[in-house]
């Protein structure tokens, strides 16, 4: 789940074997499609035209757009941000969350939620002292998986921030307000508990809440049930790209007129034995147990994997026309987005960076932005061996001149809060909007020995003052899911 489709530091999850055909050799993965193969010759009876065109497309470099299309001007189709809500290891307040990022503080600690003493990774960005008082009733709070508790609190706080509390919502057309909050892994603790009950006690002891609290759509559903929002409602699950996919789809609902307002973002709570153990099995996590706060080090030559985190980040996305009509406080503007697939491998990024660079280009086209206008890139940068450099290479394909660009990773704050998986894009979007509003970029900490190929300003170790013109935020997930969204200061 983490990195550009990211991360096993070995480069492989499945064991590789080689088979021979009359035409040549092909690399296989336990019967699955090969990552790469020699082109089969025409003499084998196979028509090579599709393979040839695919090969040609792989080798094409992404050219920067000669001239960007104009930005959207229709107030009905311009999408602005009018509220934000967060649940993080630094608490549930957006300003506090960003202040601690700017300070470079670390919330990474040893895991005490379960016995991890035999695990090769024993630390995470674990949320402690979480309170849902005033946001979830006590009975449901005791039953819910943390994934949905985080979603409900972040979602309701975002609505409050947008001045869309319960009394105000009563007077609004709720069929024009939708919810699109995704999760990469859903209610993993609820799922794990259900399986344990089945194995230890039999099916009759499985909780009736096992299925509802495990499935990934439940965050959007529960938030709508609690608030009465009846507009477009579903969940997207694209691993660590989830939240950006939700923003992209939510904005399109607004632009099509399906909704005036969308509550969108991501939520995740995978710090349990199943989640941590699973990522260890993928060889995805850092194992610096002796110094957890220094474990994640994006673009550093000594990086060894990401740090798992949890939380939720939610935005209120609204048509400009509707926001002006109700006198909303506008925090920034969503310009557009792009989504692509590497079509390459379950966990590894493409070495040519085509999936990511084409995704950035699609985002700029959708946003009406030229590459020269972008001066801040919030990178995926999960501190993985393959992913970090592949992302930088893709950025360089699109942005020929990077001298004015600053890039950091709010996932690079793995060292500070951990990689939020399906929630990561939501937390990053909040960081982008705060960077736009404050004029300060948080640092990429633990950068002691920068990779020589990284020649873009990564805001190393100390925050920097920077007036953001256009920010793009990258999120990539297992399966080759790529997503990029663009934000900018609001200008009437």
From TrEMBL:
The lineage of its organism: Eukaryota, Viridiplantae, Streptophyta, Embryophyta, Tracheophyta. It is found in: Plastid, Chloroplast. It comes from the Eukaryota. It comes from Lactuca sativa (Garden lettuce). This is 3-oxoacyl-[acyl-carrier-protein] synthase I, chloroplastic. Belongs to the thiolase-like superfamily. Beta-ketoacyl-ACP synthases family. One of its GO terms (biological process) is fatty acid biosynthetic process. Homodimer. It catalyses: a fatty acyl-[ACP] + malonyl-[ACP] + H(+) = a 3-oxoacyl-[ACP] + holo-[ACP] + CO2. Catalyzes the condensation reaction of fatty acid synthesis by the addition to an acyl acceptor of two carbons from malonyl-ACP.
